[in-house]
Design goal:
Helix content is 66%, strand content 0%. By secondary structure, it is an all-alpha fold. The longest helix has 18 residues.
């Protein structure tokens, strides 16, 4: 039998262009990445160096290249929990959500003490729209959360997950964990979303970010919270309009809110 006899040359199979990554960024590598490459030449079997290269590449948003660096680290030690956590995060960045869930699930088994692993695992399942498994991950993550800065982030995504599951009573209980006095640190956007869920901020105020340093990022983050809020209230037209506004501003295309907006947009048939 011919080697490829099982593949029919017909229109019922995918073509090369849709299955193989043919193009990569031509962005010059940073000094940090080049430094890591030099160190790797001297010690090519160092898991830590390959992981550091992945982190350096991620700073340039070279996420596919970062995934390759993390994969090299895992070829040396397939059970390195922290590398799995980082690769899982970057799989999310390039919308490979199932691969992200697999990495993060394994990482959580190897090291169940890492908060970021559970947080990103919940996100991966949310983006797959497997809300039951997202709920389980966020529940575990919340049990490990002991700072206001992290509380606002986990409460936000956990609340949205429970609401998607129709568990409004449980979702509303979460909101008591965040008050107007909660110090969100760098997570002010998540706090504002939660305060809106509580009725302490009007929906229109959520996307009023005049003077913000990164307005497109605010649109992705706070905009998605608002789009989801309208969706849950049955105001589909308003929700769709916000999703479209988010997707028109793609400077922060790897932001979690942007990724979630893409998923919801596609789930609604491209609106």
């Amino acid at each position: 039998m011919a080697k490829f006899a099982h593949l029919s040359v017909t229109k019922d199979r995918a073509d090369k262009e849709t299955q193989i990554l043919l193009k990569r960024s031509d962005l010059p590598l940073s000094a940090e990445v080049l430094e890591m490459e030099g160190k790797i030449k001297e010690d090519p079997k160092s898991v830590e160096l390959w992981m550091q290269k992945g982190l350096a590449l991620s700073k340039q948003m070279l996420f596919r290249e970062a995934i390759e660096a993390y994969s090299m680290a895992l070829s040396i030690n397939p059970f390195h929990a922290l590398t799995l956590r980082h690769r899982g995060h970057r799989f999310i960045s390039v919308r490979m959500f199932h691969e992200a869930a697999a990495d993060l699930e394994l990482s959580s088994r190897l090291d169940p003490t890492n908060w970021d692993t559970w947080y990103h695992l919940g996100l991966a399942y949310y983006l797959i729209r497997d809300f039951e498994r997202a709920e389980a991950a966020y529940k575990k993550c919340l049990e490990m959360t002991h700072s206001d800065e992290l509380i606002v982030a986990i409460v936000d995504w956990y609340w949205m997950t429970l609401m998607r599951l129709g568990k409004q009573e449980e979702a509303d209980e979460l909101l008591y964990l965040v008050t107007e006095d909660t110090d969100p640190g760098e997570n002010l956007s998540y706090k504002r979303r939660v305060l809106m869920y509580k009725g302490l901020i009007k929906p229109d105020e959520l996307i009023d970010f005049e003077g913000a340093e990164f307005p497109d990022l605010e649109m992705a983050t706070q905009g998605y919270g608002l789009a989801n809020y309208y969706y849950l209230k049955g105001e589909l037209e308003k929700s769709n309009k916000i999703l479209e506004e988010i997707l028109q501003k793609d400077a922060f295309w790897s932001a979690f809110g942007y990724q979630a907006a893409v998923v919801d947009y596609e789930a609604r048939g491209g609106i």
